[in-house]
């Protein structure tokens, strides 16, 4: 049983499902829920997702059955059926996907059966996404699992040059679309075609035929795993999990892991890494003057989700030569997930050993910092944790001011920046991240 | 309205507005049909066969409660409830600091009810969260906001609060705003005021101090006799408050501003006033009604100070109460004359532009009057809901028999159809609805902003100035409209925009 959360950095399963469905091309979600659910969710998506906006049929356009007292008393399946049919009449989409909120599940409405009854084939789906089932990440897994088991075709012949890649959760990863573009390009560099479902130029047709892939690459040890298991069960496709890569050290490992799993030769793997490194260091070299002249090394505190904290810490430690001191992961995690994650923060080439803490509460960040680094008791000479940089979300802006650290919002929620096609993954994304971090350091000039 | 009884405070929650005000949330048609429907009470049960998501009472309750300083919010519900706060966390601090530079940012705690709690109850988690809020933040108040799930499983929030109140210093305020209970989002105002009245106002009055002599007592009574509570709303700006304060102070009145951006303690003095001044009847009738009931404080409720005519009426109504009619008349004439001079160039630029408006019923109608005064032609309006308060304002809008009225909380599909066919020169709309008009290529003027002046005399000038600026270059929206599309089939725009509304008795 979980506990309360002080300023959660995620919303509910239904919120994750909405974000996931909005990010797919040609899909219109139909909420079977109380009226406020979609509205509240949309505020969280837009306001925390770098102003991702309402999209095609999100925001206040989200079709929703808006159940009230009458349905709560007498049942809402009739209202849902009416809403599905009217939505299909007015809103244009290839797929309509019904997702359910807490209330309709508690009164026993069976959305999956309603959808089955309506018999619309591969145009209409339903999944139970009641908010009490979990947070946004859970909603992502539920939607993907449903699509993999019911939308993706079975019995297709495997395509030896095709893989699927996911684990980057739309909106919870504010740069999901850019990141998928970068990772897709990397795997293409190994000689494969890649479906990412949510990236640029992806189609529903690709998703439907994604069972042709020979491998599923889940770029996370935490998100999208249930979906990978479903895929394996239904389509007998193996999956690997990899760390979310940022920068040379993370991305070279990523290429090696994926390449090895695909049976690529060492020559192919090394050639790709070499080519990427050449471009990467070609640009990174530019900042050496400023880095050396102004001493831009920083102590770092990293606060956020399981995917990014891992990738960022490796990048800061091993690429930028910074000093990550403290990492706080805010996700709601099982003990075994935590155990697995702990291993990710201890093998840096720099030899740096940051402290890793699991804590869901926004108010804890400052407490952990003060505990981690001895506070100033006013001796004549005091070795403070300065200069420091706090990488987190918009929520950490205030904490950063309190410890006199500079700050960049990278992880959800990002409310103080607009994000369009930006990416932080891979070699390419690490250059953008370097631009963003160093621009903060130099903004007073 | 004068004969309405306000005696709901013994209940843990207020009645919903469907019952209390016979409010309507789905309608499309002429203004006469709307007026008549409201008067007869026959628009009460209207509903849609196709609907889009809309705000609920919890969402709107938070919009107000988030502004209270020195308070921590506890949202009792599954992990997503109150998540929309993410949108407001950053700016909330900025607005609070306009009132107090040391104000902390928005703090809210979600009790994270999971599947097991949805069966066995969530009271234990609520207790934990309240105790955490007390120990961690030492706030003046802990505001518990109750969502749908605990209401269905039967969590006894009142008992939890009552038990804990004995152990903690912060005042616990309970707000029952379960979203499924009312289609009328504005029921939230009643829920919030209900919680404030029960937990911060009645029985919490700051004790009257002992006066040394009659002179001191006389002075205190004199101050009280000139003090007004100016009730603000979360959608107005600090500069709106300053403008309204300026006007009332010009009449020699002392102004106390509540409830938004005040501290819990501020409510303990609310009864020390000669008059409650509302700027929006939709927002405040429940509050001023109960304050009248308990403290016999009269109130001004029926006008919103938006546009010259409504602002003048607002000022004169208040002045009337204090016997300052002549002074106010001079003030109003002076302000109107100066303002009209300043408006001249904008009136030329804006003449005969057509406009469609959307937003809260009162604000929409008052803004329509303002825009007509600037020379614009109003083609139609959409109100979030409608009741007798809106009905009373209809006559202030000229040529209203030629306009289309849509009553819809959100529901942009109806609006998109209307805009496609009405083709106004500009759209004036509410947060969340603006994007759809923008994607149709229309210039958009947001109907409220917490950052700029909109009310009073200076507000009229600001609206004119901004509207004129926005109309100078619409390239962005035009470009976007060419390269994006709304989610509806083309055939939708050929249909009756109100075809999905049931039983509106057309």
Automatic annotation (TrEMBL), chain A:
Q: What GO MF terms are annotated?
A: nitrogenase activity
- Determine if Secreted is one of this entry's keywords: no
Please tell me whether the keyword Phosphoprotein is annotated for this protein: no
The UniProt entry, under InterPro entries, shows: Nase/OxRdtase_comp1, Nase_comp1_CS, NifE-like
Q: Record's SUPFAM superfamilies? A: Helical backbone' metal receptor (SSF53807)
The Nitrogenase/oxidoreductase component domain is annotated at 12-441
Q: What keywords would UniProt list here?
A: Nitrogen fixation
Q: Which Pfam families match?
A: Oxidored_nitro
Q: Superkingdom of this entry's organism? A: Bacteria
* Recorded family membership: Belongs to the NifD/NifK/NifE/NifN family.
Provide the protein name: Nitrogenase/oxidoreductase component 1 domain-containing protein
TrEMBL record, chain B:
Q: Which SUPFAM superfamilies match?
A: Helical backbone' metal receptor
Question: What InterPro entries is this protein classified in?
Answer: Nase/OxRdtase_comp1, Nase_comp1_CS, NifE-like
- Please indicate if the UniProt record lists Calcium as a keyword: no
Q: Which GO terms describe its molecular function?
A: nitrogenase activity
Every copy of the Nitrogenase/oxidoreductase component domain together lies at: 56-471
Tell whether Transcription is among the UniProt keywords. Answer: no
Gene3D superfamilies found in the cross-reference section: Nitrogenase MoFe cofactor biosynthesis protein NifE, C-terminal, Nitrogenase molybdenum iron protein domain
Keyword annotations for this protein, in alphabetical order, are: Nitrogen fixation
* Family label: Belongs to the NifD/NifK/NifE/NifN family.
Query: This protein is called what?
Result: Nitrogenase
Originating species: Acetivibrio mesophilus
Q: Source taxonomy lineage?
A: Bacteria, Bacillati, Bacillota, Clostridia, Eubacteriales
